[in-house]
Amino acid sequence: MIKKCITAEAIRQYAAASQDLAPIHLDAEAAAKAGLERPIAHGMYLMGLAQSLYIAEHPTQWITQYDMKFHKPIEVDSVVIFDFAEDDCFVKVILTTEAGDVIAAGAFAVKEV
Questions:
Q1: Are the C-beta atoms of 47 and 68 separated by less than 8 Å?
Q2: Multiple choice CATH, 2-112, 3.30.160.40, 1.10.3810.10, 3.10.129.10, 3.40.630.30
Q3: pTM of the model
Q4: 23, 56, 63, 68: which has the fewest Cβ within 10 Å?
């Protein structure tokens, strides 16, 4: 299990790199109009972060496939818990809030490099 705070700076950097500048990710007013307290993280940022965190702990593994379903948005300045469960050549991952709400769930296919 790995805990990670999703910062506004990380979201700004991801938005610039991905060119996904949707206001709901960057602007508090746009987030408020959507019924949120703060801007939300990009789903692809969360998926990429999950992969990066896993690979950092398992440097001899290579992700060959991935699948993730998103259940609810996560607001900036929230902590996300990344929980990994290895099963043969698959790694199941569940992202939750500190309160235990599921944000996203999926799996990676991995192989030894």
A1: yes
A2: 3.10.129.10
A3: 0.90
A4: 56
